Amino acid sequence: MIKDKIKEYLKASEEPIDINPVFAPAQQDVVDLIDKYWMSRYQETDYDNKGQKKVFYNIVTNPVWVAAKMIDLDVKNVRAIPLPGQNPLYALYLERDLNLYMKDNGFGAKLNEWAYKYPKYGTLVVKKANGIHTVPLQNLKLDPTAKSLKGSSFVIEEHEYTENQLRNMPWDKTAIEYAIAKNEDAKIKVYEIFGDLRGNNNYFITTVDTILHEDKRDIKDIYKELHWDKVVGRWLSRGQVELCFEDQIHMNWLAYLKAHGLEYTSKHIWKTDDMGIDRNMLVDVDDGEVLKMAGDIVPVPMEERNLAAYASEESRWEFNLQRKTFATDIIRGVRPPAGTPLGSAVLATQMAGGFFSYKQEEFGMFIKEIIWDWIIPDFKKKHRGEHLVDFVGADERQVKMFDELILEERTAGKIGEYLSTNKSFPTAEQISAMKLAEQSNLNNPQKRYEKVPEGIYDKLKYKIDIVISGENNDIQQKAVAIQTAIQNTQDPAQKRELINRLMVILGEEPLFARGTQGIEEIADKVGSQPRLPALRPTPTPGVQTSVV
Question: Are 30 and 16 in contact (CB under 8 A)?
């Protein structure tokens, strides 16, 4: 029975794991506690035995936001770098089209969401289904001891639909109507399952009563996962919030004791040995009233004498948290204490930054995999034919550079046609004539559209590489090496090629269409410090100025 199999899977997903915290033994318990701590909520109840709201001293949000800031990537970080020997024009076309495509599809917002959820929960699951979506871990059920989604014997994602939403889904219409008729709640729970329900298929869309759709799929085509701090023996990784569980519990305990201590120490109590005094000093005694009594009325000492111990304990646990999560003061932009040597501050920044650089590289490789496997195929499908590149807002230099690239590409095409027809290479005069003919077809208006040739992105992976965070391509070091080579070579053709490579690496239009004329001047500007003209001060009325 389908219902029994689903119950079996759901029960298996709730099995406790020895490696989990004792106060959150099951995978879903860990996820729920992360959500509650994020919202400054206690696991059981937010009120004490007197009915008063318990103090929650939240320390888990800051490490997450620090990590999100340090690993954050944007659409502009997605760079197309041509592989050695390939035409830089491919990378230029691709980068413009791909960035525009990702912006139109909200990919930048998804990157921000992933940079936040990845360190928060420790595990990030992304899904491709009519677009790219983030899978809530609250809705994901699987074998909690599996090493990966593919290694789990079952994976269930829970969904809820209204009747109208369910009727609009592209599944078996008869089964949908049967599921609606059997449902008694406002929403219908639907399970998306990778598992063994029946037959040879492994992918099912089903309710507890009927299967709405089934076929055979590879789970890697639908889900991708990324883990922050992998823990042996369980699927869910440990994120920044779970890393702070013990610190949060102890800080809450300190905050509770301190708050209750201040509640008592805020009271004012007096004592006297006169048995005839039976009055409340706050409400029964008027301002200016003279008390007549045999004994003195003296205050009872109620001040808090343990504040230093509280401060010491809080500092100890906050330091422990910063050490574990690398959310140190210097990373958060807090000025170091006076007298801290500059070298110590720089070293602390580098050590903490190194950890987040490592995580950003992992994040970048994950995004690169999504781009290659999911975005590029869809992008190529929509841009396979001849299409337009929008140059709205481009400055004159950018348009001129692109004109030169187009001129070079079209001239090369004409040379190829000449070779095919005449079986010989054209002369220099003929090539110049080809260039002049193509140059007449180019213009330079404020608003420009340029056609991209059909099939330019075929076999794209073999022509270019995509660099996101420099995880496999250190752009800065390459740029320095190329600059050094530009300074040391005297061959204009070699300088021309090196400048092209440098401009592409830096994200600028290549200059290969400029020819050899002016190459020495360009190489000098690119490969050395710029020589600025002498600045003359602007005279101010009534003030004598001079030029040194």
Answer: no
Q: Which residue has the tokens 């740029």?
A: 479
Question: Up-side HSE of residue 544: CA atoms within 13 Å toward CB?
Answer: 0
**Worst-scoring range by mean pLDDT, 262-266, 469-473, 484-488?**
469-473
Classified as helix, coil or strand, 156 is strand
Furthest C-alpha separation in the chain: 129
The 10s digit of each residue's pLDDT in 217-243 is 999 999 999 999 999 999 999 999 999
| Sheet of strand 123-128, all strands in order from the earlier edge strand to the far edge | 132-134, 123-128, 223-227
Do the beta carbons of residue 63 and residue 321 sit within 8 Å? yes
Name 269's Cβ contacts closer than 8 Å, sequence gap at least 6.
299, 300, 302
* CA distance linking residue 298 with residue 273, whole number of Å: 10
How far is Cα 146 from Cα 123, in angstroms, rounded to an integer? Answer: 13
Query: pLDDT tens for residues 62-89?
Result: 999 999 988 998 888 888 877 776 666 6
Among 461, 387, 362, CA closest to 101: 387
Rounded CA gap, 495 and 500, in Å? 8
CA distance 441 to 70: 48
Other CB atoms within 10 Å distance of the CB of residue 66: 22
For 292, the token pair is: 């007549």
76 conformational bin, left if phi > 0, alpha if psi -120 to 50, beta if neither = alpha
Q: Which of 163-167, 230-234, 273-277, 409-413 has the lowest mean pLDDT?
A: 273-277
Neighbours of 355 (CB within 10 A): 14
pLDDT band at 173 (very low <50, low <70, confident <90, very high): very high
Q: Residue 524, class by beta-carbon neighbours within 10 Å (0-12 exposed, 13-18 middle, 19+ buried)? A: middle
- Cα distance between residue 343 and residue 336, in whole Å: 12
